[in-house]
Amino acid sequence: MLVSGTFYVRAARRRNWPPGRTTAFLAGLVTIVVVTCSPLAVYDTTFFWVRAVQTVTLLMITPLLLALGAPVRLLLDSLPRAAWLRRHGRGPLARALTFPPVVTVVLIAPVLVLYLTPLYDLTLRSPFVDGLVRLALVGAGFTYFWTRLGLDPTPREDPHLVSVWIAFAEVIFDGALGLVLWLGPLLAPAHYAAVHPGWGPDLRTDQIIGAGVLWIGGDVAGLPFVVALFVRWARDDERRAKQIDVELDEAPSTGLWWEQDPALAERFKRR
């Protein structure tokens, strides 16, 4: 984190880089420190709800802040020989991996696998596996926000409505997972019973709180992205409208107005 933060700040200082993007990227790195090195992390193997907070942060909040920093664009601008990266970054493989259904699975699958398989119990017993899972959560979340926000160069340019549907699907799966954890069997009951400090919620209440964090917290954490998505959607529509106005003003005055509109000319051209 220190290396990536240092590189980002140094690269941003060499360019006319928006301060807001630098702030967002550094804030994303700070969230990683908060959930892994703060007093909150002391209880991440003691209470289920603490680990749920970490999961929501690493999957939804941290990647969104990192993506708002547009690190891919900054990296491409900083590398003197990035032609190969630009060329392969829009190749068939990259386009296939960022296909909307694939991105949806990349966002949703890690949490489902984590909580609905023995992997969760393994993360409590193995710091190495726990670290890999946390890295996977950040990577999955960043892939989603990187391809959906459009601040960085991406292999595909899908309509904004596609991002809205993916966000809607994520809300549905958050709710389904929350219900399963709320009403289903306890996860790693032997571990939590052995490490319970004697204060705080009991095992069932602890998991119910964690289920609420994953369900409601995940949806609330996604609201800033939805807002940013609609803002960018509105700006793109406004920019396209201005472009069409300029093209109409420069076009010859002969003919009907819709014949000069690039979006309508082909449909209504005279036979």
Summarize the structure.
The protein is mainly alpha-helical. It is built from 14 helices and no strands.
Task: Please describe the structure with a list of short key phrases separated by commas or semicolons.
single chain; 271 residues; mainly alpha; 14 helices; 76% helix
Could you walk me through the main structural features you see in this protein, from its secondary elements to its overall organization?
There is one protein chain. With 271 residues, the chain is mostly helical. The protein has one domain. It is built from 14 helices and no strands. The model has no long low-confidence stretch (mean pLDDT 81).
Radius of gyration: 23 Å
State the domain count.
1
Multimer state: single chain
What is the CA-CA span between the terminal residues? 62 Å
Reported for the largest beta sheet, the result is:
none
Number of helices: 14
Mean pLDDT: 81
Low-confidence stretches: none
How much helix is in the residues? over 70%
Report the principal-axis shape: globular
**What is the beta-strand fraction?**
under 5%
Query: Helix/strand-derived class?
Result: mainly alpha
The ordered string of helix (H) and strand (E) elements is HHHHHHHHHHHHHH
Number of DSSP-assigned strands: 0
